[in-house]
Amino acid sequence: MNPAQVGLHLSRAALPSEWAATGPTLQSLWPRLVDWFQQCPGAVVAYSGGVDSAVVAKIAGELLGDRVVAATADSASLARHELQAAVQLLPRLAVPHRVVSTGEVADPNYLKNDPQRCFHCKSHLFTRLSAMDEVRSQGWWIITGTNADDLGDWRPGLQAAQAFSVRAPLAELGIGKAMVRELARAWELPVADKPASPCLASRLAYGVSVTPERLAMVEAAESRMRELGLKQFRVRCHAGDLARIEVSLTDLPRLIDPEVRQALVRAFGELGFRYVTLDLEGFVSGSLNRLIMPQLAKNS
User: Average pLDDT over the chain, rounded to whole?
Assistant: First the structure.
């Protein structure tokens, strides 16, 4: 890094004015973030529009100036409303943005939907980002919004990140989800309380092949749920095109109301689901991983 670059970093090292009213815990993170980005020649942020990647893009923009670009992977596994929301947030982040097409939906290894699906997905993304001129010719880093809490879950995408030397400032600095949301609130980002929203393929049970048709079914089904005003839910697709609806426990009574129930059964049937079920346990993030935990335990 040449002296001019270091000067640019130092000129942007002051605590953001929006953080002036925050507590000492949050304020103490800023020098650590400055130190981390001090080593970064430039960054391509893998940006999904979720709170983690939005916060990382915002920090990168604050500290790297014009040496940052947010890149969003677009494919059939990305819900259209998620892409739209990601684009709408960009003025608040004040960083350049590119939408890059990824080819995972044409990869047989991805389509068979085994427990390594996310590895193949992220490999396609990082291959695409690695080909960007900023990374290939200028040596910019690819960075993600992976946070410290993500490291304890089954996330084969992290293996792909390691293979491509992708960096994750939040995880590397030990910053978990709760603190990420505090950072977002400090900047008054509207995604501060946004629920996690993994890709559409994550709704398909392992072994149920990923097809554009099934992805479209899930997207349309979740759109129907969203029209009911629900905030936290999933429509899981199991073998036999069975839909398993997860909602928060407080919303369960609403879905068994005869009028709502009948409307959902009819709508899901029109979308192509053969059976429609309601999970009495309620919404559980990553519930499909239960199907592979015995296998993972056996192989560990």
Answer: 90
Neighbours of 54 (CB within 10 A): 29
The continuous run of DSSP H or E covering 62 comes out as helix 51-64
Contacts for 86 with CB less than 8 Å, ≥ 6 apart? 47, 48, 49, 72
Query: Dihedral sign, CA of 171, 173, 176, 178?
Result: negative
- Residue 292: pLDDT band (50, 70, 90) is low
* Residue 48 vs residue 18, higher pLDDT: 48
Using the predicted structure, report yes or no on whether residue 4 has a pLDDT greater than 90. no
**CA 159, CA 165: separation in Å to the nearest integer?**
10
For residues 233 and 222, is the Cβ–Cβ distance under 8 A? Answer: yes
Place of tokens 């909602």: 247
pLDDT of residue 218: 97
Q: How far is the C-alpha of 156 from the C-alpha of 117, rounded, in Å?
A: 8
pTM score, whole prediction: 0.89
Q: Could you give the CA distance from residue 283 to residue 297 in angstroms, rounded to a whole number? A: 24
Measure the CA dihedral 205/206/207/211, to 10°: 60
CB 101 within 8 A of CB 68: no
In this prediction, residue 1 carries a pLDDT of: 44
- In DSSP terms, which residues pair with 133 in a beta bridge? none
CA dihedral 119, 243, 86, 191 (to 10 degrees): -100
Structure tokens at 189: 């980002």
